[in-house]
């Protein structure tokens, strides 16, 4: 939390976010990601690594880079097309790094339903990226 | 697609999509309702003599949209506020008066709602909008420790825009009855002149 507010203090100004909650959450999210290599080297297993590996494994990743504008358009159009609950669950898992158990408790559903929704969302994302010309 | 592209892709998720996801989980409404009621009752019981209510707009009428649509981003106001809450004052005299003040900020009006709009390509869309009005109850209990009656003219200073002062006009009441009041306009709080 202190890291988040220190980051906010350092970045405002020049940044003037229109949605403070999302801005602070982005800062918070980057803290564990910045420690990604550290965590992996130590063979730790925080939920963010589990979550990201789950997403990586659903694609056939390669060395072909994708332009940032294309990525932005594809991810947001993909999220536009998802039902609200499935979109929230997808973002809680892969953006907020919540565990399956936490998500199930948050939305009042079973863990198997969360797993199933995430599985389908990943498959839909893969298909959406392919249709957008991305090799995955 | 590289592994780094997957990370980048997640970073590029728009605020509009994150808005609903980042909302705190809903709590039991009944508990919150009774908690709020209990707080209000406690306030009314403790400070019944004189109370002043005002509704300053902490920011614009709507704030914190996704930012991807020009019309919503242009309207967004970030962390601006209507000014400080000044204390009740007495026009003259009042030296013998004793006052007890209680300032309460009520954030319960802060709630998100969904608004529909038409995107640049003509498709109807929805986005979340946050109303960030804050209700402030500035309550005073005035007592006269002397044996003599006192007649007072009370002033309640506040800061508002000349364009829409009614949005921030305090509602004055005593013992549950709305008080008659006269609006007096003072000098601008801005330090610059000639603009």
Blueprint (SSEs and pairs):
The complex is a heterodimer of chains A (136) and B (195).
Chain A lengths: L1 H10 L8 H15 L1 H6 L5 H10 L11 H14 L2 H11 L5 H8 L3 H21 L5
Chain B lengths: L2 H9 L3 H7 L7 H18 L3 E5 L15 H6 L13 E2 L7 E9 L4 E8 L5 E8 L3 E9 L10 E2 L15 E4 L2 E2 L17
Q: Any overview of this molecule?
A:
The complex is a heterodimer of chains A (136) and B (195). Chain A has 136 residues and is mostly helical. Chain A folds into two domains: 1-34, no CATH class; 49-131, Orthogonal Bundle (Arc Repressor Mutant, subunit A). Chain A has helices at residues 2-11, 20-34, 36-41, 47-56, 68-81, 84-94, 100-107, 111-131. Chain A is globular, with a radius of gyration of 16 Å. In chain A, 24% of the residues are buried. With 195 residues, chain B is of the alpha+beta class. Chain B has a domain at 48-170. Chain B contains four helices and nine strands. In chain B, the strands form three sheets. Chain B has a five-stranded antiparallel beta sheet, with no helix packed on it. In chain B, strand 4 (111-118) and strand 5 (124-131) form a beta hairpin. Chain B is elongated and about 85 Å long. Residues 28-33 and 35-80 of chain B have low confidence and may be disordered. At the A-B interface, helix 2, helix 4, helix 5 and helix 6 of A face helix 1 and helix 2 of B.
CATH class designation of the largest domain in chain A: Mainly Alpha
The termini of chain A sit apart by 36 Å
Based on CA atoms alone, the radius of gyration of chain A comes out at 16 Å
Look at the helices and sheets of chain A and give the structural class. Answer: mainly alpha
Strand/helix succession of chain A: HHHHHHHH
Sheet with the most strands of chain B?
5 strands, antiparallel
Biggest sheet features of chain A? none
What is the H/E string of chain B?
Answer: HHHEHEEEEEEEE
Give the beta-strand count of chain B.
9
Average pLDDT level of chain A: 81
Number of strands of chain A: 0
CATH architectural label of the largest domain in chain A:
Orthogonal Bundle
Coarse shape of chain B: elongated
Radius of gyration of chain B: 23 Å
* CATH fold description of the largest domain in chain A: Arc Repressor Mutant, subunit A
Helicity range of chain A: 55-70%
Please give the count of helices of chain A. Answer: 8
Shape of chain A: globular
């Amino acid at each position: 939390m202190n890291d988040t507010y220190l980051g906010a203090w350092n970045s405002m100004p020049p940044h003037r976010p229109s949605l403070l909650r999302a801005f602070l959450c982005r800062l918070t999210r980057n803290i564990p990601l910045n420690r990604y290599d550290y965590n992996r080297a130590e063979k730790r297993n925080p939920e963010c690594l589990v979550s990201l590996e789950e997403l990586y494994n659903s694609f056939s990743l390669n060395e072909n880079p994708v332009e940032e504008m294309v990525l932005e358009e594809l991810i947001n159009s993909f999220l536009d097309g998802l039902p609200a609950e499935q979109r929230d669950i997808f973002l809680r898992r892969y953006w907020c790094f919540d565990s399956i158990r936490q998500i199930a408790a948050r939305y009042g559903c079973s863990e198997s339903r969360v797993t199933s929704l995430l599985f389908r969302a990943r498959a839909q994302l893969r298909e959406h990226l392919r249709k957008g010309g991305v090799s995955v | 697609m590289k592994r780094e592209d997957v990370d980048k892709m997640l970073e590029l998720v728009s605020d509009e999509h994150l808005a609903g996801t980042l909302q705190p989980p809903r709590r039991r409404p009944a508990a919150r309702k009774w908690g709020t009621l209990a707080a209000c009752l406690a306030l009314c019981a403790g400070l019944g003599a004189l109370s002043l209510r005002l509704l300053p707009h902490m920011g614009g009428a709507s704030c914190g949209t996704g930012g991807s649509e020009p019309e919503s981003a242009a309207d967004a106001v970030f962390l601006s506020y209507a000014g400080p809450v000044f204390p009740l004052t007495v026009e003259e005299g009042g030296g013998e008066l004793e006052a007890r003040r209680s300032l309460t900020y009520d954030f319960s009006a802060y709630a998100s709602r969904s608004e529909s709009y038409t995107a640049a390509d003509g498709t109807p869309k929805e986005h979340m909008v946050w109303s960030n009005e804050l209700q402030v109850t500035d309550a005073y209990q005035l007592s006269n420790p002397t044996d003599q009656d006192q007649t007072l003219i009370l002033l309640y200073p506040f800061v508002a825009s000349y364009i829409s002062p009614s949005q921030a006009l305090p509602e004055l009441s005593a013992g549950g009855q709305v008080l008659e009041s006269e609006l007096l306009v003072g000098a601008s709080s801005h330090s610059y002149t000639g603009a």
